[in-house]
Structure formats: C-alpha cells, structure tokens
Amino acid sequence: MATTAPAEALLEAPADGWRHRYARHPVATFLLWRVAAGILTLLVVTMVIFAVLQIIPGNVTQIVLGRNATPDRIAAINASLHLNESVPTRYLSFLGGVVTGHFGDSSAALAQGQTLSVWHAIRTPLGNSLVLAGITTVLFIPLSLFFGMVAALRAGRPTDSILSLTALTLGAMPEFLIGTLLIVIFFAQLNLLPPVSLIPAGQTPLGNPKELVLPVLTLLGVSTAFGSRLLRASMIEVLGEDFVAMARLNGYRERRVVFRYALRNALAPSAQILAQQIQYLIGGIIVVESVFSYPGIGSKLVQAIQVRDTQMVTIIATIIAAIYILINILADLAVVLLVPKLRTRA
Length: 346
Hints:
The protein has 346 residues and is mainly alpha-helical. Helix content is 77%, strand content 0%. It has two domains: 26-111, no CATH class; 123-343, MetI-like fold (Orthogonal Bundle), CATH 1.10.3720.
C-alpha cells in the first residue's frame, strides 16, 4: 500500500528547494538583496530631501519676483507650481515622475513664465562632473595601491616616513586650500595651467584636458593621501600573518607573495573604506567645482539652492544619493568576490 508524505514534509520541500536553488547562486542572491535594500534606502532619502526642502526659509516665487512680488502674482505662480497642494501629494507626484523618467520642469523657470526641463538643464553639468569623478577615481585607486604598498613594504624606513608625512599633510588640508595652492604654483608662478576650468559651450571636458588637470590634482590630493594610509596599515597587518610567512618559507617569489597573498587579503577589509573615499570625491567635487568655476553638477546645485528651485535641487540630490548607494553596492560585491568564504554566506 502506498504511503503518503506528512503534510509538514510537503510544506517544507518547496522551501528547501528554493534554498537549494539560491545556494547555487549566492552572489546573485546577495546582489539582488543589496539592490532591493538600495532602492528602499533611496526611497527614504528622497522623502528626507523633499521634507527638508519644505522647511527651508524662502520661496522660489518670492525670490524670482523680488520687488515685483504682489499677493495676486505670488498666488498665481504658486498655483502653477502646485505649491498650494499638500506635501504628500506633491511628493507622490515627484516620485511618479522619477519612476517614469520624467524629472519635471525647473521651478525657477516656471516662476518666470518659462519652461525648462530639469533633465535638459542638468544633463551637460552631470556629464562634466561624471568625467571629473571618473578620471579621479581611475587614478585614485592605483595611486593609493602603489603608495600604500611601497610604504608598507618599507615600513620604518625613510621612504615610509616621507610618504606618511606627505599623506598626513595633504590629508589635513581642505580641498579649497589645495586648489588655491595649485593655482598659485601652476598659474601665478609657472603660467602652465589655467586657474579656472571654463569649458566652451558644445564641447566636453575631455576635449579640453588642460581644464581638468588642476581639479583632478586637487581631488587626488586628499583622497590618495587617505587611501594610501589606509592600505599601508592594512598591508602591514597582513604581511605579519602566518600564511604570508609560510608562503615565503615555501620559496615563493616576493612579488607573488605580495600580490597574490598579501594584497588580496589587504584589499578585502579596505574595500568599504575605499568606497567611502570615492563617495567623498563626489561630495568634494562640489567644493572643487566652485574653486575652479568648473561647469559641473555641483555648481548647478549651488545655483538651484540659491533661487530655491526645489524641483531641480530634489532631482540633483536624488541622483547624487543614487550614485552613493550604487558605490556601496559595488563595494559590498567587491568584498564578497575578494573573500571566497563570504560567498557561501551571501
């Protein structure tokens, strides 16, 4: 006579099957959960940004109209901007536009009786900032690795002392001070590079490389100093581990010991902090763009805040927040890929 499986077994079997299926792709499962958490985080961030902008003193209508502001004109413009609607209603309208890819129109332009798409206004500055951030990041990572490794392999020697002192000095200086010193050296004294980064209309920063040199050097000054010190400390700790000593006793070449064993294990705990440093670059760009008059998203954000252009400020802040979250996800993924044992827990 055939036997029937208990009800508990029937209920548990699908769950075990799902767990087994997920266990075969732990990295993909981990990435899926991190993306979901990132979307939720971004949703909360947009709520906070939208709420903060509602309590900031000043109104785009009053700022744009200035002395010509009258109660009737203010009421008419507020109605056209939907400022008379409740905050939740305006937030849901904003969120719906972001989800569908429609970023809306500039509040300041609408207050002047004009129409200016936010995406059209920020597209070029955003691209300029991404070029600046991308070049800096591409240089920041290998430079941090190089100087950190050199300092760690020569720990306690004059080379280490010089690199550490230089890193401490640069790390203690704010971006605007480094930028000002670079202008004095390369423009006022040597007359080699322009003091401001004016990109002609219709051209890209890559077509004007001289305009990028000083902003990139300014961002690299602080970020590389911090990154190299971090990797130096991590490398020194890993080089003292038993598995590194065992690799040397087995006769492996020093290059193989450093790159295959020491560096890989030193990068894993440093990945998150390096990601934070890249995020710091995104924030530092706002200051650097102001120093060099670089036509990037930071300058556009400052201008939008000055006129209380809430739509543009919210969109720019949301894009920056999304970039931050993406960097965190990539950093977490890098840690999982660098440490094999974490893949079974992902």
